Request: fold
Amino acid sequence: MQPEEIVLDATLATLGITRDQLVDIGLLIGTDFNEGVKGIGPKKALALIKKHGALEPALAELGVDIESKEEVRGIFLHPKVIEDVEIEFRDPDADGVRRMLCDEHDFSRDRIDAALEKFGSARSEQKQRSLDSWFA
Reply:
């Protein structure tokens, strides 16, 4: 399977919509934060937003409303971003890995031990590089 890169600006230009309108389309279809409007899929949602320009007139035409639409819009348009995050790398909990994979999911203990050993030796051979090192 080949990964596909989706470029926001190119996608918006191709569809002839703005980022705000893309979020409105998502609200009509449904997101992780709202159920959407029954019977509205991507094609109908795009057509409604292109016709009306925004969510509210499209909802008026459909005779429905979406609860918490402003809150959900905010999640997509103004997400909370934590800028100063410290990441601490440490060795895995080998016993925890074995409990989860072998005891709970019936993985082969020999294969897990071999993988943990390989991981441990690889970690000791290389030091984690910081993101800044790529730009130096």
Summary: Residues 109-125 form the longest helix (17 residues).
